[in-house]
Design brief:
Blueprint lengths: L6 H22 L7 H133 L3 H7 L37 H6 L24 H10 L25
């Protein structure tokens, strides 16, 4: 395929070729300078040059307009692409937030179900304990009543024996020898246990679930989603670790014009350094 020139390049080529022919014609007709045909042809060429200049301006204006149009279209396309990317990013962000909210709701529901299950178990255990206490109290009352009846029968039998002895003429010494006047040591009956009926104890500590890699929030957010009570596992320093004295560390930071940041969840070092006495 032949190389196709732009309108501006084609116009410049025509101008160069025609002007070269005009210069050659002028060279060949130097003797005719000033004649009417010579002057007419020169005026015609000059008019053509002015027309070429006008066409140049038109071509430049059209090229500039096309360039501006192309630039505007490219800018509009870039803005549309950027807008589409922002919309996609916003949609993705909303989807992630919705997923995170759903996971948080599922996690909260799981915790609520967990607490309700254990609370119900504690209430059931408390009711069973209360029923056992009531049954024990009833058994104690029954045994106490039976013991009182048997003791009353023994006392009546002893009184009957005393009456028979008095009627038969026995003295007080014989009464004492027979143990009639000996008082029986009454054993205190077991007191019924005081029944305390109240609300079951509140479950404590079960809201502090272990936060590790098995937690769905940890899989998604890592330590950023850790609850306030979570303490990261302590990692001891390496065996060859030599801690720097605090005073020396502070002095070095002063020389560098630095300050210590706020320490959060940083465990103390496990190695206690041994310092030698400094000479005076």
């Amino acid at each position: 395929l032949a190389f196709q020139l732009t309108p501006e390049e084609e116009l410049e080529k025509q101008y160069r070729d025609y002007k070269a022919e005009f210069e050659k014609w002028k060279e060949n007709n130097k003797n005719a300078v000033g004649t009417e045909p010579y002057m007419a042809y020169v005026e015609k060429f000059e008019a053509w040059e002015r027309e070429v200049e006008n066409r140049r301006e038109e071509i430049r204006a059209k090229a500039q307009e096309a360039q501006e149009t192309q630039k505007a279209e490219a800018q509009a396309a870039a803005e549309a692409k950027r807008k589409k990317e922002l919309e996609a990013e916003e949609e993705k962000k909303k989807q992630q937030e919705a997923e995170a909210a759903a996971q948080a709701a599922a996690y909260a529901q799981h915790q609520q179900s967990y607490l309700a299950h254990h609370q119900a178990a504690i209430q059931k255990e408390q009711l069973m304990r209360q029923q056992q206490e009531v049954t024990a109290l009833q058994n104690v009352d029954t045994s106490t009543e039976t013991l009182d009846k048997s003791r009353m029968a023994d006392v009546m039998q002893q009184m009957e024996q005393m009456a028979q002895m008095v009627m038969s003429g026995q003295n007080a010494e014989s009464f004492e020898a027979d143990g009639i006047y000996q008082q029986q040591i009454a054993q205190p009956a077991p007191q019924p246990a005081q029944q305390i009926i109240g609300p079951p104890p509140q479950l404590w500590g079960n809201d502090r679930v272990i936060f590790d890699s098995s937690d769905p929030m940890y899989k998604r957010w890592g330590l950023r989603a850790a609850p306030p009570y979570h303490k990261p596992p302590y990692k001891p320093p390496p065996p060859n670790y030599q801690p720097l004295p605090c005073w020396l560390f502070v002095e070095q930071m002063k020389d560098e014009k630095l300050i210590l940041p706020s320490l959060v969840n940083v465990p103390p070092p496990s190695i206690i350094p041994s310092f030698t006495a400094r000479g005076h």
